[in-house]
Amino acid sequence: MDDTPGPDAARLTEAAGMRDPETGLRAVTALRKLVEHLEAVQVRNARRQGWSWQRIAGVLGVTRQAVHQKHAHRE
């Protein structure tokens, strides 16, 4: 599976700025899902490379407990 966002990310970003609220909100929802996916991919990469939960949390700007609670079950 390819973990890169591709052209859809650019299309969604553009749609999120549209004046039509339905189009914009649907794009925001899709972007949220994309960000969650990308975060999970990168946390998994970091853990495979031996990063601690503390180091990952620092880069993400959250607490160690928050990142562990969100992603530990995926290991």
List the helices and strands and how they pair.
Elements: H1 7-16, H2 21-48, H3 53-60, H4 64-71
Helix pairs in contact: 1-2, 3-4
Describe the protein's architecture and organization.
This protein has 75 residues and is mainly α. The protein has one domain (7-74). The protein has four helices and no strands. The longest helix is centred in the middle third of the chain and has 28 residues, at 21-48. The protein is elongated. The model has no long low-confidence stretch (mean pLDDT 91).
Query: Gap between N and C termini, in Å?
Result: 18 Å
Q: Given the helix and strand composition, which structural class is it?
A: mainly alpha
Overall number of domains: 1
Query: What share of residues is helical?
Result: over 70%
Series of secondary-structure elements, N-terminal to C-terminal: HHHH
Mean pLDDT: 91
Radius of gyration: 15 Å
Low-confidence runs of at least 5 consecutive residues = none
Strand elements, count: 0
- SS strand fraction: under 5%
User: In this structure, how is the largest beta sheet organized?
Assistant: none
Which of globular, elongated, flat, extended, rod-shaped describes the shape? elongated
Total of helices? 4
Key descriptive features of the protein:
elongated; 72% helix; mainly alpha; 75 residues; 4 helices
